[in-house]
């Protein structure tokens, strides 16, 4: 086996994919810790690699035929990349992960900028935070759809990531041009950065006050929006991870404005501690909101179970819910593959 692997590595990259089996390979006297979507990125519980002769180490695992997986190694407490895999992507926290995909994986192409369609415009704005959230100013980008007439607004938490990494504006352009999505406007709200993002998105009413008192007046002034007083709940809100939690909380607290919720990998609990949005939905009155939820089968530790509990509770309460699990982890490439389906479910043409 070691000779076969050495021969393979001369002309091929890792991991080695054979039908549904994936073999990770390391060469050296010792092997670093292997972590990834399939371990929940838990450095204390890495995948244990098997030692062979000639300094070859391997770990084999099976995956669904359409899986997209990110991974990496930990050596002396520091993350390192797979030297035999040139495929890498940003991990969102200043570094990179390696990735691979199974033969049946088909990434979404909706966010590629198309040349033969009309594109919307994106404008940048700086808003006073009103001492409600971190900092004195916060950046908000507004997407103006390439259409005439009033449209619903979708607020996007972690706006800079959905705009720059996921290129949601391109995706909306394409969906509108293909007749799959009714025209919508977008408000991309930047997050506060690593130091304050969690506090602002952990079901914070101060963050919602900033949304209602600063962002919404700006959007109404700059965009041609549907009259929300005449069309209660016509707007939407979306986000991922803590932003997915905040999207759900926004809909629960302000359903008469944001009646459409798109939550991706929502962080609805910290360990065994469930966030207040659970209690509001479980014990409070029914809210007239439509919900899309998605989560990865290889999501961060606990998130899959948390989202399943949320899905079960929402179903028992009679909420209009579409729920989807996909064979990937907690990252923007995975969210990019699924967010278009959520937009169509909530704002599809004819809805």
Give a written overview of the molecule.
There is one protein chain. This protein is α/β, with parallel strands linked by helices and 351 residues long. The chain has two domains: 2-101, Immunoglobulin-like (Sandwich), CATH 2.60.40.10; 121-347, Rossmann fold (3-Layer(aba) Sandwich). The chain has nine helices and 19 strands. It has an eight-stranded mixed beta sheet with strand order 10-11-13-12-14-15-18-19, sandwiched between helices. The mean pLDDT is 96.
**Could you report the average pLDDT, rounded to the nearest whole number?**
96
Q: What separation lies between the terminal Cα atoms?
A: 57 Å
CATH superfamily of the largest domain: Alpha/Beta hydrolase fold, catalytic domain
Main sheet: strands, sense, barrel = 8 strands, mixed
β-sheet strand percentage: 25-35%
Q: Tell me the helix content.
A: 25-40%
CATH topology of the largest domain: Rossmann fold
- Number of strand elements: 19
Strand order of the largest sheet: 10-11-13-12-14-15-18-19
Radius of gyration based on Cα positions: 22 Å
Low-confidence regions? none
Please name the CATH architecture of the largest domain. 3-Layer(aba) Sandwich
In the CATH scheme, the class of the largest domain would be: Alpha Beta
Q: What count of helical segments does DSSP give?
A: 9
Q: SSE order, as H and E? A: HEEEEEEEEEEEEHHEHHEHEEEHEHEH
Shape: globular
Instruction: Tell me the number of structural domains.
Output: 2
Q: State the secondary-structure class.
A: alpha/beta
């Amino acid at each position: 086996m070691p000779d076969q692997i050495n021969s393979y590595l001369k002309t091929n990259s890792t991991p080695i994919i054979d039908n549904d089996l994936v073999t990770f390979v390391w060469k050296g006297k010792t092997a670093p810790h292997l972590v990834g979507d399939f371990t929940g990125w838990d450095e204390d519980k890495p995948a244990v690699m098997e030692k062979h002769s000639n300094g070859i180490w391997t770990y084999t695992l099976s995956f669904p035929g359409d899986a997209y997986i990110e991974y990496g190694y930990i050596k002396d407490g520091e993350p390192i990349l797979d030297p035999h895999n040139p495929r890498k992507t940003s991990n969102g926290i200043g570094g990179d992960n390696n990735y691979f995909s199974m033969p049946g994986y088909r990434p979404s192409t909706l966010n590629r900028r198309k040349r033969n369609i009309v594109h919307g415009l994106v404008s940048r704005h700086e808003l006073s935070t009103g001492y409600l959230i971190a900092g004195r100013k916060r950046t908000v980008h507004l997407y103006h759809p390439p259409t005439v007439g009033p449209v619903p607004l979708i607020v996007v938490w972690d706006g800079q990531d959905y705009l720059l990494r996921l290129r949601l504006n391109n995706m909306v352009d394409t969906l509108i041009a293909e007749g799959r999505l009714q025209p919508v406007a977008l408000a991309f709200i930047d997050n506060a950065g690593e130091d304050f993002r969690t506090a602002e998105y952990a079901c914070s009413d101060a963050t919602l006050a900033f949304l209602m008192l600063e962002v919404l007046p700006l959007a109404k002034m700059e965009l041609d929006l549907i009259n929300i007083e005449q069309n209660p709940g016509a707007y939407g809100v979306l986000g991922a991870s803590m932003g997915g939690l905040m999207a759900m909380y926004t809909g629960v607290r302000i359903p008469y404005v944001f009646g459409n919720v798109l939550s991706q990998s929502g962080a609805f609990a910290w360990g065994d501690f469930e966030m207040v949005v659970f209690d509001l939905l479980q014990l409070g009155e029914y809210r007239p909101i439509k919900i899309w939820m998605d989560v990865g089968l290889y999501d961060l530790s606990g998130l899959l179970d948390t989202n399943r509990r949320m899905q079960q509770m929402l179903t028992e309460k009679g909420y209009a819910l579409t729920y989807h699990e996909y064979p990937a982890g907690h990252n923007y490439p995975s969210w990019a593959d699924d967010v278009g389906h959520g937009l169509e479910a909530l704002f599809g043409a004819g809805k």
